[in-house]
Amino acid sequence: MTAPEIVLDIRGLVAGHDGVPVVRGLDLRVAAGEVVALLGPNGAGKTTTLQTISGLLPIISGEIDVLGQPPTPRAPHKVAQRGVGHVTEDRSLFFDLTARQNLTVGVSGRRRAAQAVQRVLGLFPELHAVIDRKAGLLSGGQQQMLALARALVAEPRLLLVDEMSLGLAPIIVQRLLPMVRSIAEETGAGVILVEQHLTMAMEVSDRVCLLVHGEVVAQGPTAEMKDRRELFEASYLG
Questions:
Q1: Has residue 152 been placed in a domain?
Q2: Which candidate among 50, 91, 158, 166 keeps its CA 20 to 30 Å from the CA of 80?
């Protein structure tokens, strides 16, 4: 059997803000169709890692291959054009536009736009009922679905999802997180999921990488990491 394509390969990454390291010596690989949960307490460097992958922050040292090429510093649009979708923790929706308009921003041609909407609505059928409602009027859960759906319009091969449960009730999170698993399986995209809900994140991931103070303290298949609960408790509680 042919091994899955590696869509992300990080080697010895040092990254941060204004030249000050936040992440140190990170090694991480993601294969097509795989979900990797990037976990750790606040300030561990999870968001910094995603921002560096997508080109929002420059690499201080180390190497990143994103779909076979290094990211373009401070040019996330070029990384997105290559096939990377990034759902930021603030969702970055246009609240004065409808859900449909949010999905079709940047899609040229009426036919292509209609096809894109139909494709992602197949993954998020709950958006059908609110597709022509302004994004600012949607519930938090609906907004998060819309943010995910918008990232998938461009059919990314690597999807970065940052804190999709932020500000949402646990019952909503229980509905949303399995969608990440479905996205990987149905589209073949590799996914990095940054998430605070440890148990739920482990239920949908193939592998786990635990960051503490910018350094990897544990990494491996989710099935093995579930047996190391005391490590996670110690990491989050300090």
A1: no
A2: 166
Q: Which residues pair with 26 in a beta bridge?
A: 13
User: In the chain, at which residue ranges do the beta strands (DSSP E only) sit?
Assistant: 6-17, 20-31, 35-39, 59-66, 84-87, 158-162, 190-194, 207-212, 215-221
Q: What is the DSSP letter of 134?
A: B
CA pair distance 114, 110, nearest whole angstrom: 6
* 191-223 residue pLDDT tens: 999 998 888 899 999 999 999 999 999 999 999
List CB contacts of 191: < 8 A, sequence separation 6 or more.
30, 34, 35, 36, 158, 159, 160, 161, 180, 183, 184
3-state secondary structure at position 157: coil
Which is it for the CA torsion 40, 45, 48, 54, positive or negative?
A: negative
Strand pairing report for 215-221 and 207-212: antiparallel
In the chain, count of helices (H) and strands (E)?
9, 9
DSSP three-state, residue 84? strand
Sheet strands side by side (includes 215-221): 84-87, 158-162, 190-194, 35-39, 207-212, 215-221
Specify the number of domains making up the chain.
1
What Cα–Cα distance (Å) separates residue 125 from each residue in 46, 56, 117, 119, 174?
Answer: 30, 31, 11, 10, 17
pLDDT of residue 238: 61
Query: Containing domain of residue 9, as a range?
Result: 1-81+191-238
Q: Give me the pLDDT at residue 1, please.
A: 62
